[in-house]
Structure formats: structure tokens, C-alpha cells
Amino acid sequence: MTVDRRSMLKGAALSAFAFTVGGATSWLTLREAYAQSVPLNVLTPTERAALEALGETLLPGAREAGIALYVDHQLSVDPGDCLLAARVANVPPPVSNFYRACLGALDRAATAAHGMPFAQLSPEQRNHFVDAMRQKVPEGWTGPPSPFFYLLARMDAVDVVYGTVEGFERLGVPYMPHVSPTSKW
Amino acid sequence: MAIPEKVDAVIVGAGPSGLMLAARLSEAGRKVVVLELGPPWEPKDLISSQIWSRRLKWHGANQLEGRNPVAHNFNAGWGVGGSVIHQYANWPRLHAEDFNVHSAFGRGLDWPFSYDVLRPWYDRIQNEVGVSGDHTREVWRPAGAPYPMPPVKVFPHAERVAEGFQKLGMRVSPAPVAINSVPFKGRPACVYDAWCDAGCPIGALVNTFVTYLPEALKHGAEIRPYSNALRVLTNARGDRAHGVEYVDTRTKERQVQMADLVILSAFTSQTPRLMLNSANDKHPNGLSNSNGLVGRYIMTHTGASAFGLFDEDVQNYMGTSAAQLISQDGYAKSSKRDFIGSYTWMIGAASKPNDFTGIANTQVPLFGAALHDYMKRASKGLVKISAVMEALPNADNRIVLSDRKDEYGMPIARIIHSLDEDALKLFAHAREEGLRIMHATAAKEVWAPPGPPALLHFTGGTPMGKSAADSVTDGYGRAHELANLYITGAGLYPTEGAVHPTFTLHALTARTADHLVRNWGTIVA
Predict the structure, then answer these.
(1) Which of B156, B217, B254, B339 is most buried, taking the most CB atoms under 10 A from its CB?
(2) CB B200 to CB A178 under 8 A?
(3) A3: chain B residues, CB-CB within 8 Å
(4) What is the pLDDT of residues A34-65, one digit of tens each?
(5) In this structure, what CATH number is given to the domain that contains residue B57?
(6) What is the predicted ipTM?
């Protein structure tokens, strides 16, 4: 019942996700989808802004690599098909509840501290805020513990930037797949 | 509610234990049905990606409590093949001293038998499925047959750390792993691309695609995926199990699979949950739970890591998810130390950039530009060692039913877990030793996370024992109060030692399977 390594490599190919753009279905990579501002299925524009700003703070490049599209896509599938790190961290399905609660808490706490949501903070303010939230729950944060969300959102950012074939290439390490992913994520 | 045809044996859980039993019983002519919560994976589903690897792991959630809440999703499987589909394949044996901890130290529990009873089953399994190692250099290993394959290849990232051990006068040996160092029984040798955690589709690493699933299917066992077990049913007298009620998660239809023999081979947290949820008028506290021990004595291994950063390319991306070398110089339990417990150093596990055990998570505080800088340096220069440490069984660490219910109305597991002083002292001891070892290497930077300890493998909860008063099952996994209800898996361990649980799980299951086949008439009479 094993699969021959050579035949798997031969059959493996990267492909894209199906996105609805202007009423029509298009096959796009997530980076292309980000560039075309494809709307999300689960997260609101406000939540998207918060997640992208957080992702970019955690690991610059995560926004352009499609962190919001990645998370949103995983939140839209059946819990058994979800690939987010949260799936493996005892977060009760549906995981969208967790992200909604955390992104809302992020904006509330940022507003409590600086009078504006996280996405509108300056880069220095974001860095300072993230450094604080990873260590203890900031004032005004209500929801799952901020250090836990820091860990999982950071893992999302690392997934999209370095957990792909492209990311391995960026680090200069060989990917060496047996069965290549059929999509970027 | 549908009631399919009665079978000889129904097994809950299509992990390595359940599938081995299905293979052995069906080979002996028994009609077997295996109920599995998850999907029927195929080798093509084992996608080489740490992101995709998560699909193979259980995605549920337990209610976690205690000072050290234990989330076990990373270790648990989901789907046909269970956790062994994504195992790292570290396969050291338990030591003889692990079987009599209570007798020797007045702590924890004793196994109902000694190492000598399990030894031939370790020997049989390693020849059956393939284990690589060198028993002559593994000086701490208890008696047993030589491994059927030579050790796996050692890469520079392991060699650099081994130098640190040697400078401190500590011994290292090739790690025993269930990975082919050479072709074995028609399966290829490992190519050292380190995708073990995402599953090994070529069959170089032991998983059920190359072991018991084909055998079970060949002999006619039926594997029934998407089947979520809800309750074990008993006869009116309450002295025999006679079936399992389950729900088809696709159709939501409830069914009962009647059988002469019921075997619970689910993951450690789920077997007690199922037994507790099966309470009836004859078993008001849950099945076979008059002594109140179902769900108690759960254990986790704790983990301590130490890291080093080299400027050179140490090829840390090559190898396996398992260790290439081990050291058990600290294994022997002693009342002269300020803790009771064993530990094993794992040396030279390969690293991927992402996921829970990936490079990025070796420096969790870093983010932003500093994280990019670290990733660039560590992706070729990081070395690491990890201690697998024993935690003693404690009755207060337990699984009970939560007030919360899942979508099928079944209470989820409420897992209460705290580490005791021995475990915390052992962690501190190993962490300090890990730092000394790393400082003895040529690494430019050295660090060790301060804690709390990582929580690794999950065992116990249905411990076997000699007497019905202080255990859940006998030495073969038979529930004390139901003559035809058997439990298998790591939940049976009275103590866990300081070795990964999978080899012992296989050996223990093989012994039980042999017992069931030989004594079938008596057991189902």
C-alpha cells in the first residue's frame, strides 16, 4: 500500500485556490489573490485589517504572503480539513470563534491603550503592543489569553512566509517532498 | 437506529493497536469490525508539509484544568492509522526498573508483570515491523534480541552535539527507531528528508499502511471510518459487553454494532471518556468502574530542550523527526537524587522551519525583523537536544466527563493534570544538564527555555494491575468487571518510564492479541 517516491514526485504539482472575483471563479495563488484584494469568506474587513497588521508585525512579509487569505480559507472549511495551528492546540471548533474573539480583543485592547484599533497604530506602537501581549494579557483584552494568540498568530505568519516551498527556498534549505502540497497551503 | 449483523469482535479505534488486533483476530478466522472516528487515509494523503501534517491530527478539544493543562492533539491521530501515521518513530524499550516503581520507591504503581514478560514481544515486534539501532552501543537497553537493521545515518547536527556529551563524559549511542536504515521486507530505506511528522508514504517508517492495515484487510476485517463511538452496551446482568453504539458522522445516523468481544483501542483520553459515558444501572459510575479508577493516573512525559547555534551549515534539515542518537546516562531511578524519575536525551532530530516543533518555535519571544534574522541563521545552524522525562502516576491526575457536550450530545473529556514536585525537579535537573552539554559544544550561542515543561506523550487513565482493587484491567487489558471487554494502548501503562510509548504499545498489544487468539473460546463463552 505504499506509493513509489518517483511516481509521487512526478504527479505532484502546485496549484491555486478557486476564488470568486467579480462573480466569476478564478484560480489564483494566495499571493495573487492578496494582490487583487479578493474578499474574504469568514473574516470581516475590520478583522482582516487587524490580522494583516498583526501578521506583518510578527513577521514582515506575512501580509503580502496572504496571511488573511490563508486563515480565512482555513476557517471556511470543515473543522476536520482545517490546517491552522489552532486545530492542534485544543481550540474548540469552529476555530473561527477563536479568531473572532482574539482579533476583537486585539482591537479593543489597542483602543484602550492608544485610542485606535491595532491596524491604525504606528509600526513602533504595534511592536511595543505585541511585545507586551506576548508576555501578559494587556488591559482591555477580553477573550482567550493574549500570549496564546500571539503563539498561534505567529505560527500562522511563519506558515505563510516560511512553511511553503517558496519559504524553504528563501531560507536556502531543500524542500525534498514525497508528496507535494496540491496548493500552497 | 440501525443494527448491523453481529460480529465476533468490534474494535473502537483504527490506530496501530486496533489494527494489529484486527489483523490477528481476522487471521484467526474471526469476523472483525473496526470503528474509526476519522477518515480513511491513503499514502497519497501524507503530504510533505508541516501545515498539511495537521490534518492527520485530532482536531477536537477537551476541557483542560489543573496547574499543567495537557492538550494532546499534537500526539493524537485521527483517521485510519491513528497516531502512528505521524509518529516520529523513536522506539526505545522500557527498562526493567520501570515495571516495579511502587515496590522500589513506594511511589506510583507497579506493572502486573516484569520486563521479562514483555521482552519476547518487543523482540517479536522489532523483527516484524523493522527497527534500526545498535544494541551493543545502547548500553542501557535491557536484554533482548539485536535490532534487525543497523542504525540510521547520523548528520553533522547530531555529531556536533554528541561532542558536547562526550566532553562531559556522557555516553551516546545510535537511537533505536522504527525507520528503515536499509531496505526491509520489501520496503525502501529512509531518504532522510525529515517529513516523518507529515507521514511517510514510501513506507520507510513504520505506519499502519505497511504493517497491520493491509493484513487486516487481507483477512477480511472491515474498517468502518467516520464512526464515532458513543457508548459500550452491556447485557442485562452487566457482566458482559455486547456491542458499541456509534454515530456515522456523515449521515448522523446512530447504529449499534453487536459483538461477542468488545475492544477499546481509542486514544488515551477517549477510552476513559467512552467508559464513563457508558454508565448504566449495573455500572452507575461508568463501565467497570466500581473502584473509581477509570480515567485516573493519567500521565504525560515532560520535555526539556536545549539549543545551540552554529555558524556552519550543520545540515539540521536532514535526517528524521526522530533522534539519530540517544543518551540514557540519567535513566536509572535513584532515591539519592532529589526526584524519582528517569530521563532520556534525544539528539539530532531534524528541523523544519514551521509548526510546533519547528525552528521558529525554538525562540518564541522573537518577532518582526529579529525573527527573520533568526530564521536565516537557525535554518542551517541550529542544533538541539530534548529530554523525554518521566512523570509518576498520580490518582488526582484524571479524566472525567465534562458538563460540556459535543455535537452528538456526548460529554467531552475534562482532563485535570498537574505536575508534582518530582517532575518539576527533574525538569530543572535536565534543563541545567542540557545547558552544560550545549556549552560543551562549539556552538556560538546556547539557550534553554525556562519552562514550564513541555508536555509530550499522553498515557495512563486505564492502568493495568494485579488486583481489581487498584487497577482498571488485568495484565492482558481485560476490564475487571466485564469478561469480554478489553482495553489496549498506552492508557494501560501503570508507569511510563522515559521512553516514547509506541514500541511498548505494539509489544503489549501483540501479547494481548496472542492471548485472545489462544483463549478465544473461554473469553467469548
Answers:
(1) B339
(2) yes
(3) 43-44, 201-202
(4) 777 778 999 999 999 999 999 999 999 999 99
(5) 3.50.50.60
(6) 0.95
